[in-house]
Amino acid sequence: MDSFIILSILAGFLLHLFLRWLFRRHRLRLPPGPTNLPVIGALPFIGSNPHSGLARLARQYAAPIMYLKMGTSGVVVVSTPSAARAFLKTLDAQFANRPNVVSATDITYNYQNMVFSNYGNKWKLMRKMASLHLLGAKAMAGWAPVRRDEMGRVLKEMYDAAADKRPVVVPEVLVCCLANIVGQITLSKRIFDAQGEESNMYKHMIVELLTGTGLFNIGDFIPALAWLDLQGVQANLKGIHNRFDAMITKMLEDHSTTAKQREGRPDFIDLIMSNRVGEDGDTVTDTNIKGLIFDMFTAGTDTSSIITEWALTEMIKKPEVLKLAQAEIDKVIGRERRLEESDIPNLPYLQAVVKEAMRLHPSTPLMPKNTRLLVNIWAIGRDPDTWTDPLEFKPERFLSGPAAKIDPLGNYFELIPFGAGRRICAGKLAGMIFVQYFLGTLVHSFDWRLADGEVLNMNETFGLTMPKSIPLKAMATPRLAPSAYV
């Protein structure tokens, strides 16, 4: 018996060695990528702007699909439309979950919001409610008067600024306008006045939040060091979360006391409260509701304002594009009234300008899927094998030729500003309406030039979103009949 045991152990050991050798011999080769340093991997090679650093490495290694270590985590980075299609369409089910990163724990209520929650019945229920009552075509059409009213307030403010020869800080005005729209739709409440101290605090909080969550936090890639919070990311985001949570809690408390005022015209929160149990028994909790409001106020304000600001910046940089857009709108509706959302389908050049801004300046440069897959949307939009003159702002590319059929709603992987697959942004329709309507109104209603002493700056700040490093400050000169600004 002793001999049998010894021989069995020896045979098992030899089999183990053989299988290890066989696995090494026949294992699949990993995609190309940089040599990884001990513990920290390739993190030093990426730089302070990971979207451009990863694009540079992909070019260096001729790797549309690249593998590298970020700390102790293996990461696959895709940088071309065909590679993105393979992961987001063919392999979509395997990459349907968001990464559970340490830095996002607090701000997402421990992943209880829609953006970061795992794919499953609860996520499907939240997305269904958001699409049905807030972000779908029918819901968006129902809230069109709110968008028109808030855009009218913006026009009046800019018209007054022009009369006083004051410059307009474009992103501040847009964020306040969008926050007021989201506030009315979700909670029946205008949130901010455009020039108020509270609105500036909100804008700064949003910027801190979205840049902080997009940072390559060392603790996310080297979990053993997470507790040290070496970059201060977690402490900063926790502080922002506490302030944001206090604001949302106060809004919900106020909302609960005004139910009678909304009879016959329920808002998003009213509809969720009355339909919070799904068919399979899953329930949208109070924490989920806070997470949903958080999603709407972050993704619903800063991302749309970023694209609009970048588009207007590019048009100031290339005045011929601004003039062509204005000429198209003037031809369709004249100068006696303001642009309406119903005019947008008749404005193909304006739509092309928006697509081109989304190509060159996606509001979300890196789209994380599963634990460690990054889709470099920024690199895809600048892929020289896909786009002629990829670094040039040329809206005409979307009016004829191969790009004319491309839409940005996840059907064409050459242009995926909202992502693609089953985790595509639920607010893609809202984002398109906001950007096209806001940009078209600003372009039609005013001539634009830089404020005196301002220099056109095209630098970007990396984060979960990618705003301009220096906000656009410009002078707006009215070009419509005075009655259009009332």
From TrEMBL:
Listed transmembrane segments: 6-23
InterPro entries, A to Z: Cyt_P450, Cyt_P450_CS, Cyt_P450_E_grp-I, Cyt_P450_sf
Requisite cofactors: heme
SUPFAM superfamilies xref list: Cytochrome P450
Pfam families according to UniProt: p450
Residue numbers binding heme: 425
Keywords: Heme, Iron, Membrane, Metal-binding, Monooxygenase, NADP, Oxidoreductase, Transmembrane, Transmembrane helix
Gene Ontology MF: a single term: oxidoreductase activity, acting on paired donors, with incorporation or reduction of molecular oxygen
Entries under PROSITE patterns matching the protein: CYTOCHROME_P450 (PS00086)
Record family assignment: Belongs to the cytochrome P450 family.
Protein's name in the database: Flavonoid 3',5'-hydroxylase
Native organism: Rhynchospora pubera
Taxonomic placement: Eukaryota, Viridiplantae, Streptophyta, Embryophyta, Tracheophyta
